[in-house]
Design brief:
The complex is a heterodimer.
Chain A lengths: L1 H36 L9 H4 L4 H7 L3 H10 L4 H12 L10 H15 L1 H14 L5 H12 L5 H13 L16 H12 L3 H14 L4 H14 L1 H10 L6
Helix pairs in contact in A: 4-5, 5-6, 8-10, 9-10, 9-11, 10-12, 11-12, 12-13
Chain B lengths: L2 H23 L4 E2 L8 E4 L70 H15 L6 E2 L1 H8 L32 H14 L19 E2 L3 E4 L12 H9 L2 E16 L4 E8 L4 E13 L6 E10 L4 E5 L2 E4 L1 E5 L2 E5 L7 E4 L20 E12 L2
Parallel strand pairs in B: 7-13
Antiparallel strand pairs in B: 1-2, 2-8, 3-4, 5-15, 6-7, 6-8, 6-15, 8-9, 9-10, 11-14, 12-13
């Protein structure tokens, strides 16, 4: 009886620890794989990278001449407008941390925008009216730049509401084209900066009404409202008959 | 059974249903309830952190990890004895930020703390989504509370040995508080990050036992082994399974060798440096006729450089022989990969969407590291 009890206990213990042993073994295997796949690294600060490089040289070296021309064509030729040209042309090379001239250029231009936020926001609004659809990723980045400007709050909210309301074309041929996420990015930024429930509700109401022709898109925009206020988002969806498929 | 008993049982039943529902939902991203069956958007709630927050310049990195691979300039924009050379922003705050040494005509490099910044955001997302019954202890608990790690014996906090160099300043871009700065520094210490040369990016996979029940941390995801397997579907599957994700991108230079009048071979050589990105969520949207026959998948990411959101859809390159008219190209990826995800770059007109978009010496960023943490 005692032997049976011990055997039973040993079997039960074995069954209990088997998954852990298997996990531990699998973990060891993965660590081996991880080690093999580990990349060589060490971003040595290269003095040539720290050397100043004029913007013209940067965009020429990057093969961004056409993009620079396209941005020049839509953004005003003011100090802040030109800063926005450089920022949008160098996106996303100006992000990242490899001590590239692009990164320093973008930092300088961002500072220029913050020195004159009202003008920067006006230039941005004007530029985004005409920005070609192909530059949807740039639009999504510029929306976030605008949302962070220290311009009057009402102007920033108006800017974001307009971007949430802007009609977007969903590319049936190209599944990698995420232009339809631009109003969603604007909605994310609105939720981040505006905690006034009435104001936020009015902005979403305006945007969703403007996008109502496309129910999928309207619901996608409202899904960001859900993050901040699920009840009001659902109420709005119900009122605008967006819960009916 | 009287009315009170019935109410009591109804309440108990409701509690049970809520508990089961919470348990099933816990440890998973939040998904919109108003989207249809063929449309989905899910995301982890996590903060946006900015690796360029000026407050990183106020605190000294401990000498234990002062192993920079290249010297930090001692003279920055004419200021001798750069006060920030041993801080987490070794060239000081960026132009426009408080205490910056940069000028209109003079600017320097930023810090290399993208990976701890990315991992700190991801870990905060994992903690925010955990089940109420899952407990946190050890290092992760101190991280979450924004405490200085005991192991490093910091006297005041935020690893300042002689400082801080300047008092805490308001965040000019996001809403990072003192605890947020501390969390990124804690993560940087564990990763052995060098402020001017980066570090590892997989510490989230090593904190499994700080959770009870234990979390699952994996390099290369929940169900795959190496970069060849990374696609939009991989991200979506791991996020839906409840895992937060941090990826690393590295630059590779394409080398095109002509092998005939119309034929060539493409190989790649590795470059130094890289960048870490946090993956926050995804969106699946039916396109074309809305019947779901053609679906667009978007991956929702946060770049630690500025804490910007970026939606991407990953295009893959695969080994093989390609022909277009009379031209032929043979593509061989590095490291024995059979395929790899290409991180989209800035100019849509020069984007690498296929083997034919690759030019000689073009720098391409591959998604070559992938780390997940699933917290119950």
């Amino acid at each position: 009886m005692r032997r049976n009890q011990l055997l039973g206990a040993a079997t039960a213990l074995g069954l209990m620890i088997a998954p852990f042993l298997a996990t531990a073994w699998a973990g060891t295997q993965e660590k081996t794989i991880d080690k093999r796949a580990e990349m060589p690294r060490g971003a040595v600060v290269d003095s040539t990278k720290l050397a100043p490089k004029p913007y013209e040289e940067i965009f020429t070296d990057r093969g961004l001449s056409q993009k620079n021309s396209d941005m020049q064509a839509v953004l005003p030729q003011t100090t802040t407008g030109l800063a926005l040209v450089r920022i949008s042309t160098l996106f996303p090379y100006g992000l990242g941390e490899d001590n590239l001239p692009e990164v320093r250029e973008m930092a300088r231009d961002s500072a220029l925008l913050q020195e004159a936020p009202d003008q920067a926001l006006k230039d941005l609004q004007s530029g985004l009216q005409k920005l070609p659809a192909i530059y949807w990723a740039e639009r999504q980045f510029l929306i976030q730049i605008g949302a962070r400007l220290k311009a009057p709050r009402a102007s920033v909210i108006q800017f974001l509401t307009a971007e949430m309301s802007r009609p977007v074309k969903i590319s049936a041929k190209d599944p990698t084209n995420l232009a339809y996420m631009s109003p969603v990015v604007a909605a994310d930024m609105l939720v981040a900066i505006d905690s006034n429930t009435a104001e936020r509700d009015a902005a979403f109401r305006q945007a969703v009404k403007a996008q109502q022709a496309d129910k999928d898109l309207s619901r996608l925009i409202l899904s960001r409202y859900e993050v901040a206020d699920a009840t009001r988002a659902m109420n709005l969806a119900r009122q605008l008959e967006l819960l009916t498929k | 059974m009287n009315v009170w008993h019935k109410v009591h049982w109804a309440v108990c039943l409701l509690c049970l249903v809520v508990t089961i529902a919470s348990a099933a939902y816990a440890g998973h991203p939040r998904c919109s309830l108003m989207l249809g069956t063929n449309q989905k958007a899910c995301w982890f709630e996590m903060p946006n952190y900015d690796q360029n927050n000026p407050n990183f310049a106020a605190y000294i990195s401990p000498s234990t990890f002062k192993r920079e691979t290249g010297p930090v300039a001692n003279v920055v924009c004419g200021v001798v004895n750069n006060p920030f050379d041993q801080s987490w922003l070794p060239y000081g705050p960026m132009i426009g930020d408080d205490h910056s040494l940069w000028t209109e005509s003079c600017s320097y490099g930023i810090s290399e703390i993208c990976c701890p910044t990315a991992e700190a955001m991801a870990l905060m997302g994992a903690i925010a989504s955990k089940s109420a019954s899952t407990s946190i202890s050890g290092w992760t608990n101190r991280f979450y509370a924004g405490q200085t790690p005991d192991a490093y014996n910091a006297s005041v906090g935020l690893m300042n040995q002689i400082g801080p160099i300047f008092p805490f300043v308001p965040d000019p871009r996001l809403h990072m508080e003192l605890t947020d700065i501390q969390r990124v520094i804690d993560m940087a210490l564990e990763q052995h990050t060098m402020p001017n040369a980066g570090g590892d990016e997989d510490y989230i996979t090593k904190v499994e036992k700080d959770f009870s029940p234990a979390a699952i941390g994996k390099d290369f995801g929940m169900g795959f082994a190496d970069p060849s397997d990374i696609s939009n579907a991989t991200f979506i599957a791991d996020l839906e399974a409840g895992a937060v994700i941090v990826i690393a991108l590295h630059y590779w230079t394409a080398n095109i060798k002509r092998t005939g009048s119309n034929s060539s071979e493409i190989t790649f050589t590795s470059n130094t440096g890289g960048h870490c990105i946090t993956v926050r969520g995804f969106s699946v949207m039916p396109i074309s006729d809305r019947s779901g026959s053609n679906v667009s998948q978007g991956i929702d990411t946060i770049d630690p450089d500025g804490g910007f959101y970026r939606w991407v859809s990953i295009v893959k390159l695969a080994n093989g022989n390609y022909t277009r008219g009379p031209a032929s190209r043979k593509l061989t990826l590095p490291e024995g990969w059979t395929s790899v995800g290409v991180w989209p770059e800035g100019d849509p007109k020069n984007a690498v969407n296929s083997v034919w978009d690759i030019t000689d010496k073009k720098q391409i960023r591959f998604i070559d590291e992938y780390h997940t943490l699933k917290v119950p």
